[in-house]
UniProtKB/TrEMBL annotation:
Cofactor: pyridoxal 5'-phosphate
Protein family membership: Belongs to the trans-sulfuration enzymes family.
Protein name listed in UniProt: Aminotransferase class I/II-fold pyridoxal phosphate-dependent enzyme
Keywords (A to Z) from UniProt: Aminotransferase, Pyridoxal phosphate, Transferase
Species this protein is from: Winogradskyella bathintestinalis
UniProt-recorded Gene Ontology molecular function terms: transaminase activity
Pfam families, A to Z: Cys_Met_Meta_PP (PF01053)
Taxonomy of the source species: Bacteria, Pseudomonadati, Bacteroidota, Flavobacteriia, Flavobacteriales
Length: 399
């Protein structure tokens, strides 16, 4: 049966303390107990429904976590203060000194930097590979490998991971397949394809209003319990806790995610087709020319399309910078990193979000200087946007 993530979110029902249509926000860092015994049991994690301290859990964080677990089809989830605050504890929970990670080489710059520069200090080594080649992935697995890490749609090159194929490898070698699904919420449901753990930066499409950072880990009850363990849990002890006021606001934004994703996808798809027809080197998973178009199609849920992210290559960094500045002047979007906003956002990843990746490695993975990454907005009149963007390109001699 088809997986319907938006239904799963909508089927949850929470009321506020006084019958409010939104759940009440518990605006407290600490909680009182009538009996000292219950306080002890709660600390040990043995008193369901009781709260002790808001780094451990809070009603608002549990509501948001439950909604995101429903969206991804996992037993449960834990929300965190940022996407990196979700990714780093997962790696550290699953790996210790001597362990090994096999990771896609085209991942978010912060994740890349963490695996490349930080975890080796703790004795965790990572091999970065081309995730689209399963034979190369398999060849990189060693007896010490614990984690297979990828993004369902990669940042910034929009490579698509074959999650079923990777999951088969993970099962064969007893690894955990961790998928960052930030670029494709609702469109792709990695758990249904065999992933073990899904992480998101809530900062992007899921929250969608560019007013906060946030993250989530969706997984089994056992994993989330381990992450939250007061004695040994990486999420608990590293302390990247989301604030209750913020999780309540992210939950309200999550209510409209399905509508926003449809509009982001529709607009991006329109622009990608037009730009490609104009002769620009355009990368969008919805284009038949995308090497993984068929794969994305085979993995996607109905309705939500191929997402809001696309790239064009305008040849040189000077062209890219001039075009981005001109588009911003014409109010077609903002020269800004991040994604999932109502407004189109654009940046040149080589010199910004992927600048952690050394230049020669950027070249090797096809990340060229003239690449512009777009997070296409919710424009009500995308034909007008297209015409105005094209005008900018003509004025600059790019088209
Ligand atoms: C932004 C991003 C992250 C990091 O999330 P933060 O909320 O900035 O910590 C991780 N993965 C992907 C794919 C991202 O786009």
């Amino acid at each position: 049966m088809a997986f319907k993530p938006a239904n799963h979110i909508q089927d949850l029902q929470y009321f506020g303390e006084f019958g409010g249509v939104n759940p009440s926000i518990s605006d407290s860092s600490t909680y009182t107990f009538l009996s000292a015994k219950t306080m002890f049991d709660t600390f040990e994690g043995n008193a369901d429904g009781c709260y002790l301290y808001s780094r451990h859990s809070s009603p608002s964080n549990l509501y948001l976590g439950e909604a995101l677990a429903a969206m991804e089809g996992t037993e449960t989830a834990t929300v965190t203060a940022s996407g990196m605050g979700a990714i780093t504890p997962v790696i550290l929970q699953l790996c210790g000194a001597g362990d090994h990670v096999v990771s896609s080489r085209t991942i978010y710059g912060g994740t890349y930097a963490f695996l490349k520069n930080f975890t080796p200090r703790l004795g965790i080594e990572t091999t970065f590979i081309d995730i689209t080649k399963l034979d190369i992935v398999e060849a990189a697995i060693t007896p010490n490998t614990k984690v297979l890490y990828c993004e369902s749609v990669s940042n910034p090159l929009l490579e698509v991971a074959d999650i079923k194929g990777l999951s088969n490898l993970a099962k064969k070698y007893n690894l955990k397949l961790v998928v960052d699904n930030t670029f494709s919420p609702l469109s792709i449901s990695p758990i249904t394809l065999g992933a073990d753990i899904v992480v998101h930066s809530l900062t992007k499409f899921i929250n969608g209003s560019s007013d906060t950072v946030g993250g989530v880990v969706c997984g089994t009850q056992e994993l989330i319990d381990n992450l939250r363990n007061v004695n040994s849990g990486a999420a608990m002890l590293l302390g990247a806790t989301m604030d209750s006021l913020r999780s309540a606001s992210v939950l309200k934004n999550l209510r409209t995610l399905h509508i926003r994703m449809m509009q982001h996808s529709q607009n991006a798809s329109y622009l990608a087709e037009k730009f490609e027809n104009d002769g620009l080197k355009t990368v969008y998973p919805g284009l038949a020319s995308h090497p993984s178009h068929g794969l994305f199609k085979s993995m996607m849920n109905d309705k939500y399309g191929f997402g809001g992210m696309m790239t064009i290559d305008v040849g040189t960094i000077d062209n890219a910078n001039a075009l981005m500045e001109m588009m911003q002047e014409h109010n077609l979007g903002y020269l800004a990193v991040s994604l999932g906003f109502y407004k189109t956002l654009f940046s040149a990843p080589g010199s910004s979000t992927s600048s952690e990746i050394p230049e020669d490695e950027q070249k090797e993975m096809g990340l060229s200087d003239g690449l512009i990454r777009f997070s296409i907005g919710l424009d009500a009149d995308i034909e007008r946007t297209y015409k105005m963007m094209k005008d900018c390109m003509v004025q600059l001699g790019i088209l």
